[in-house]
Each structure stands twice: as structure tokens, then as C-alpha cells.
Sequence to fold (383 residues):
Amino acid sequence: MKRRIISIVLILALLQVGITNTVIAYTQSDVNATKNKVNQVKKQQNAIKAEKETILNEIAELEETISEYESELAELNTKIKKLETEIATKGKEIETLKEEFAEMEELLTDRLVAIYEEGQVNFLDVLLSAESIWDYISMPTRIQELTEADTAQMDKVEKQRVEVEKAQKQLEEQNTELKSTKKTVETKQKQLNVVKADKETKAANLTAEQKKLQSQIKKYNDEIKKMEEEIAKAAQNSDGYVGNFNGTLSWPISKNSKNYNYITSYFGNRDVPVAGATANHGAIDIGVYSGTPIYACGDGYVMVSSYNGARGVYVMIKHADNLYTLYQHLNSSSVKVGQTVKRGQLIAYSGNTGISSGPHLHLEVRTSPYYGSEVDPLNYMHW
Fold:
């Protein structure tokens, strides 16, 4: 009996172990399956996020291209207006020159006709026809004066003819340039329309969340556009600056500052740091802490010292040889517009203002004051 009870107890115990093991195995399997599902969902979320960012970045790049086209068109249209004004002025100048030429030519023609009708005048005829000694003395002078006047008039007419031809040639060149510029505008406008249509198509397919981000990106681009307009106006006021440039820019941060040469983002293509940021970086980012002193890269003229919602506090300096440096995301500026600065002079303190992923100095070098002319700063300096 005891053996039977023990056997039953052992069987029950073994069954209990088996049941427990089965429960544990099922629970672990379920957890693993759930984890797999979670990972799959996360991958899907990441894929959706990546796709979202890709679309937003594509739109941002299209908007950047639109901004570049609009900037180019603005410059071209300004050039067209200038040419049209010059052509109108040149046209009036040519008309005046032609009128003067016609008058001179008429005077000369009348003079030659008079000489022809009176017959060939010679020195002896004039002397023999003198009625008094005074006539005799003054006649040679009159003949000489008359000859010089005729020669001067002929020279004047010839000079005027050359001036008219020169003005007409300049007018033709300006008209040719005007036609070429208008054709370029037409081509750029077509390209702009294509890019805008592409952007609108992509924007129309965005989700509500994406549209919210797109609105933020648009605000960012609008701020950049405002900044570039400010720079364009400032450029007109700095035309008189000449300055000196030895071909090399100095590093904007002292070696005594921490991370003075730590470049967090180089010029050119890059992985975008945030959705909407450009993949084509037109500057270098130096990862210094807020409050780090920033120095002018060369002698120059302060074109802009201002604040912008996207760029934050920024300073732009015009150097000689059509070179410009732009320092942005600053904490504060130490210079004023119209001020001239020397290489190595303190101009600002770094910061994290505007739309920025963290404290750093964004340094641009441009070959003109306008957006789209950015070049790699490292090509101009030893670091």
C-alpha cells in the first residue's frame, strides 16, 4: 500500500515537474515571439521615420533649389533692368551724337560748296585783291585761320563719326547681352516651375505629422531667405571697400579654446543631422562651447551684424578679392555694420542661437555675397 502511495506521489511529482516545465517553455516562447513582434514594429517605425525624413529632406532640398533659382532670377532681373536703363540712356546719347554729327556735317558741306562756287582760292589772288595795307597784312592770317578752321571742322566731324560708331557698337553688345540674359531667365523660370511642381506633388502626399514638420522647415527656409535679402542689401553698401588680402584666411578660434579645431560637420555632402536639414553643407561646423571668442579670418568690412530666426546671431565680413566670411549661431556680436576689422580681431562669441543641433560655430566662405557661392573654407586656411 505504502509503495503504491509512494508511486502515486512520485508520478504526481513527475507530472507536476512536466507541467511546470511546459508552462515555462510556453511562456518563454511567447515572450520571444512578442519581442520579435516588437522588434519588427520598431523596424517598421524606423523605416517609416526614415522614409518620412527622406521625403521631408527631399522637399527641403527642393525648397533650397527653389531659393537658389529665385535668387539667381532676382540677380538676372536686376541685371536686365540695369541693361535696359543703360540701353535707353545709350540710345538717347546716340541720338544726340547723331544730331551733332549731322549739324557738323552740314556746316562742313556748306563750307565746301561755298569754296567750290567761289572757285579755288590761292594766296596770290588774296594779296592782289587787298584794298589797303591792313588788308594786305591781315589777309595771310585770314587764309591761315580759314584753313585751320576747315581742318578742325573736318577733324571734329570725323571724331564725332567715330563716337557714334563706338556708341552703336556698345548698344549692340548690350542688346546681345540683354537677349542672352532674358533667355537665361526664361530657362531658369522653366526649371523653377518644374522643381516647384515636384515639391507641391511631394508635399500633397505628406501625412498630418509630416505637414507639421514641413511647416517648420518652410519657416526655416523663409528665415534663410530673409537673411539672404538682408545680405543682398548690405552688399550694395559695401561696394566701396577694397582692402588687402594675402590669399590665406586665419582660423577663427584661438588654440587656447577647447575644441578649437574639432570639426563636427565638413563642407559638402553629409548625413543630415535632423529632418529638413540640407544634405549639401555649404560650410564647416566647429564644435566649440557657447561663449568661445570668435576672431575675424582676415581684414575686412562688416557687412552684417544681425539676428535671424534660422541662423541666429550672425556676422558677415567682406574681404578683398570678392571673398566673404559668414559666422553664425553666435551667442553675441562684438562688431557693428560699417566697421572695418583686422585679421585676428575679436568679432563675436559662439553660441547655439537660431535653429541649431547644439553649440558650435557655423563658418561659411563665399566668393560673392549671394547664396550659392559657398566654397570650402579649408581651401583658404591652415588649420
Q: What stands out?
A: Residues 70 and 140 are 73 Å apart (CA to CA).
